[in-house]
Design brief:
about 0% strand, mainly alpha, Cytochrome c5 family protein, 5 helices, globular
Length: about 120
């Protein structure tokens, strides 16, 4: 069962991922300023929890050493590459199309923090 989301969370999740800006327009006035990176737990709780809590389709479960150790043995660069590009049943970046690589790394770090 998926976690319940508020209307604001749903609106944020389905919001457009890009904006068009005319050359020479002021980025700050158009809302195009740089956003701060989301934390690993924020990314996990919004985008990753549906699969990584229960291990859907073989997803490694959060803080489950037996699930993560074979993946981590390949090196963190490979783990991150698979998360960003997609691997087996996992789509690219999971379901977080607008996540940066740093945010994906933070989510991975959150999922393995207690191993």
């Amino acid at each position: 069962m998926l976690p319940q989301q508020s209307n604001d969370e749903i609106k944020e999740r389905i919001a457009p991922i890009a904006q068009v800006r005319v050359a020479g327009a002021n980025a700050a006035a158009s809302g195009g300023g740089a956003a701060s990176a989301r934390s690993g737990d924020a990314v996990y709780n919004k985008f990753c929890t549906a699969c990584h809590t229960s291990g859907v389709l073989g997803a490694p479960k959060i803080n489950d050493a037996a699930d993560w150790e074979p993946r981590l043995a390949q090196g963190m660069d490979t783990v991150l590459k698979h998360a960003v590009e997609g691997f087996n049943a996992m789509p690219p970046k999971g379901t977080c199309n607008d996540c940066s690589e740093e945010e994906i790394q933070a989510a991975i770090d959150y999922m393995i923090a207690d191993i």
